[in-house]
Amino acid sequence: MEDRELYNIVDYILNKAGDRELEVIKEALRRRIENKSHSPMGIDINRIAHDAGRDLGKQVASSKKMISDTVKDFVVKTIRQEAPGISDHDLGVLLDQWVPDPERAKKRGGAEKLPNDVVIKMIDQILRFSSGEMSVTEQAELNRSMPDWQENYWRHFPDRIRGLITLYLKGKIDSGTCWDEIKKELYSE
Question: Fewer Cβ close by (within 10 Å): the C or N end of the chain?
């Protein structure tokens, strides 16, 4: 335990805890001391197992990160050798496709791949909603069937499609260009 954590615990006990909290702390300490005294030679087996598990978890996480970094470095070097003039953005897109980051997928909700016709319908609904062209009835139906439908839809769109939708809604590209690029993205895979 770091000194700062210990200081915070002691500060809480001495300055902030009320009678109820002090009783809970007292009972936890009593149990801890009792469990320790019943273990062989006063050794806290639970604590040893907990610490060993924590340390093993840290080692596994560190090893996974090291392997992931090694693979990413190899892929980056290979791409740069094969396409020396590639932009950093395009390199990032290729890297995401070839060596996906599991943490990033979790943040996106681990979205599964949907059929293209479903994605097109979802994009159409997002575009019509965002531009005020969706009927109130359709909005109500979507909100009833899936209260956070916009966020759920957005999570399922690939990054490039999100970018195209954003460009269209900001008026940077027209509808035809937006849809042409979306179809290229969906059907070129």
Answer: N
